[in-house]
Design a protein that fits this description.
The chain has two domains: 6-101, Nucleic acid-binding proteins (OB fold (Dihydrolipoamide Acetyltransferase, E2P), Beta Barrel), CATH 2.40.50.140; 106-202, OB fold (Dihydrolipoamide Acetyltransferase, E2P), CATH 2.40.50.140. Helices cover 6% and strands 62% of the residues. The chain has helices at 149-156, 199-202; strands at residues 6-14, 19-24, 27-37, 43-51, 65-76, 85-95, 102-111, 116-119, 125-134, 140-148, 163-179, 182-198. The longest helix is centred in the last third of the chain and has 8 residues, at 149-156. It is globular and about 50 Å long.
Length: 203
Amino acid sequence: MEPNKNKILLRGRLAAPPALSHVNHGVEYLMLPLTVCRLSGVEDTLHVIAPRDRLEAFSLDTGVPLTVRGEVRTFNNRSGVGRRLVVSVFAKELSQEEGEDENRLELSGTLCKAPALRATPLGRTICDMILAINRRYGRADYLPCIAWGSLAHHCAALEVGDQLALEGRLQSRIYTKEVDGQMVERTAFEVSVMSLSDLEEAT
C-alpha cells in the first residue's frame, strides 16, 4: 500500500435531500446524508460532499440508492458552532445501482497522536488514535480511528510517527455532551479499524 492512501467505497441510500455545503472558487458543493447499514443492522449516516454539476444526472430523492467512491476529508471548524473536527466523504465517482450496502475504507499515513487505551462502560477494550494523511499541495487530513479487543492492545503499543496502513469503515456515533448546562446530542465520525499493518510490511 502506497504512503498517504485514502480510498473509500460507500453504497447506501439518501437519508434526506441534498443541501448546500459551501462554495469554493464559484463552484457550489452539496452535502448528501447517506445511510449505510452495517452487518449488525446498525445504520451509519455519513456526510458526502459533491459538486452540484456532478449531481445533475441523478435522482436525489430521499431513499434512492447511491454508490460513492472517493476520499475521507477533514477540516477544523473554527466558527464555534457545531463539531470542531468535521469529517466528510469527498465524492470522486457517483453512480446509482441497487445492491448490498458497502462501507470499505483503505488508509495509510502517519500516527500523529499517542494512542489512548481505555475500556468502555461495558468493559470492552478500545484504543483511540489519529492518523494523518497528506494530500497534495501541503494539506493533510487528520482522521480519528478506533480499534477494539486484541487489535486495540496492538495499537496502544504504537508510537507517534509510525507509518501505518489500515482497512476499516467510516462510522457515525451519537453521544451526549453538556453545553451551557444542558445535555445536547452530537454525532462523532470515526474510522473503525478492521486490520492494521506496518506500512513497510504492506508495500
